[in-house]
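Posting for a labmate who doesn't have an account.
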Amino acid sequence: MKKTGLCLALAAALGMTMTACNRTDAPAAGAAAEQPATPATQDNPFFVKSDLPLEYPHFDRIKDSDFAPAFDAGMAEQLKEVEAIAGNAEPATFDNTIVALENSGQVLERALTVFFNLVGTDTNDTRQKLEADYSEKLAAHQDAIRLNGKLFERIQALYDGREGLGLDAEGKRLVERYYTDFVRAGAKLSDADKERLKAMNAELAKLGTQFDQNVLGEVNASAVTFDSAQALAGSSEAQIAAAADEAKKRGLDGKYVVTLLNTTGQPPLSYLTDRESRRKIFEASMARGSRGGDFDNTGLVAQVVKLRAERAALLGYPNYAAYALEDATAKTPQAVNDMLGKLAPAAVANAKREAADLQKMIDQEQAAKGEASFKLEPWDWAFYSEKVRQAKYDFDESQLKPYFEMKNVLENGVFFAANQLYGISFKERTDLPKYRDDIWTYDVVDADGKPLAIFIFDPYARESKRGGAWMNSYVSQSRLRGTQSVVANHLNIPKPPAGEPTLLTWDEVTTTFHEFGHALHGMFSDVNYPYFSGTNVPRDFVEFPSQVNEMWADWPSILANYAKHHQTGEAMPQALLDKVLAAGKFNQGFATTEYLGAAMLDQRWHQIGADQVPAADGVMKFEADALAADGIAYPPVPPRYRTPYFSHIMGGYAAGYYAYIWSEVLDANTQEWMRQHGGLKRENGDRFRATLLSRGGSNDALQLFRDFAGHEPKIEPLLAKRGLDSAPR
């Protein structure tokens, strides 16, 4: 999932759609002249462009004390630039208004991009305090630009006369996008309503920051402690050692601590043999954010949802989802409801069939032991699905992991696939500064031998890192600015004890391919204006290229190139490769149901009016009622995220979590096209790059898909991909 610096913060703060906030994610530095350094600024790395290759950040010089001065000076500088644009006595032109705005805010861009990227991947108390201190100030800064009446008059004049400006298609679209963004931000409101909007935005900024910090704090605080290694039976020696090390770090010598990820399901549930240990971990995960105490988020959720509904009403929309989806490819809540509603019955039906297989396995095992059987519970699903997988396909994850050493997967799998498909190559470099010792940096070289981008790979989980996996940009490509991309992928893979290899699960392998699909979208960008760069596309389109890239994870020639034993170097046996491929649709009922539970819950929260939002003590009842009403409430398969730790919908995915499966419709069509045209071929990669990956947001998203595929998207390939095409409706 792509998450970018300022965009992530302002999306959480203002409840904006990603397209609306993309512009603020990268205020273009471009042609605007650099200010000469002064004694007060020369030691602050944000006051001048980085002199490292491709303007790669000077992580070796950046100190936490640099951020606040750069924020303050950067906001002041940009407001000064904006006032000069708005007050220009000359009639509005594309160059003196739109391009000038694209070139504003250089210092603020550099500081905020690095700051919010580091807050996501390596936060600390100082950074969290800065985030809280500046959330309302940044919202106010955004409002000062978007609600500037004189500035909007110039933008509207250009919009009204855009057909006669002599612009190319990208320039014309840029004028239209600026106009739309300003209107959606409240530029046409009365002065009194603008003041109301500013107050809402400031409050949403504060609440969004508090929610995110609570989620991170609760994940760390909810780590589960066990008194003995026996409770962790089924774990590898390395996993038990890691749990002991974690306990020691927390002052719990002699005990074992299992940390949690910010999802409902947890990795140990698939291998712990002690059912009580599994239950303990699962219930700790499910209770996060809703059990009182410092990290309870139910009150924050109620406030945020109500404020979003009120803000949408002020802007003329019946609810927040209607506001958010108008600027997405889906366009309307009804379109999203229709698609999710078609998928839910088939997904739940598949999940119930899978549950019957799991229950049968439980009954057989208990009978063999001479013990009474028990009913399948959520904490049993992952454990017994592995057993069923092994029985059906004669393999389990423990057989796979020795063949998936992390760096080998990256270099001989992910990079190799990109080389075969697009002709690009990679060279690790060790001379660039890092914000952590355990990340990797690569030069990316295009097929013609010219530098294309710099790629940062940050794989490991840590307490200072938020959950999930995502891509972000440190520098975005733009011909206007003369910049190329510096992008990063972030995962949350548990770090093994020193000296042990990092061995991946199959899910972690596919996640690595997925996130690199986002990176390719950023690196291949070839647009004029920063506004359109890379992944600056509608939220329900942004996951599409990354999902396409997953198809190469199990492509036979790619898999054979990286699936090699980390000790012997021997290739994974063909028989095991065949089983991996055959098991591709296994457990899809579970996967689709847990995802749809979260996606439909997101829509329920954002399709209500302010007067329908429950108080804090009614938040969890609202969740339960919503899942039941949508026919997705199946107890053995809870939503992937419950409301109090659903960080996506408190940030840029508000009313947009459906985007993964909406994008997967396009992905499934594209995979079908690739296979029909020969699969892993340069011609196919070059076409995908030329018609779609390089275009960013410079054209209508669905038109980009049509340009590539030659037809409208169809839902049938998705149903087949997820094994839902034969499920009873």
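Reply:
Got it, the structure tokens are right above this. The CA atoms of residues 292 and 298 lie 9 Å apart.
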